[in-house]
Amino acid sequence: MTSMSLYVELKARPGKEEVVAAFLAGARTLVEAEPGTIAWFAVRFDSDTFAIFDAFDDETGREAHLAGQVAAALMAQADDLLATPPVIRKGSVLADKLPA
User: Keywords on this record (predicted)?
Assistant: First the structure.
């Protein structure tokens, strides 16, 4: 069972909303190379509010993801793309339902 998670809220700069959306959609290929990332979702809530949700079996997987290519690429572009710094929240998974 997954036991660790990350929730990262992102607020796009005005005029950068579609660039952020495209960045997140394209990040999927990078996450596929992370064996410790059990589940990964990039979501859009409204025109400029986005989030990433990930789940991991252990802290090793979570830390590997935080040190991975998606995080590095996001932080390298954060000043240009985001209105505020990303809010990264570490959580514990209480229950899950994943495909077999």
Answer: Monooxygenase, Oxidoreductase
* pLDDT classification of 1: cutoffs 50, 70, 90: confident
Bridging pattern class, strands 4-11 and 37-44: unpaired
Give the pLDDT score at 65: 96
DSSP state of 12: B
The pTM (predicted TM-score) of the whole model is 0.93
Residue at token pair 């059990």: 38
Q: Is residue 97 part of a domain?
A: no
Mean pLDDT of 53-63: 97
Query: What is the tally of structural domains in the chain?
Result: 1
CA angle 76, 13, 41 (to 5 degrees): 65
Q: Would 72 be classed as within a structural domain?
A: yes
Asked whether residue 100 is assigned to any structural domain, the reply reads: no
Could you list the residue range(s) of the whole structural domain that residue 60 is in?
4-91
pLDDT reading at 11 higher than 90: yes
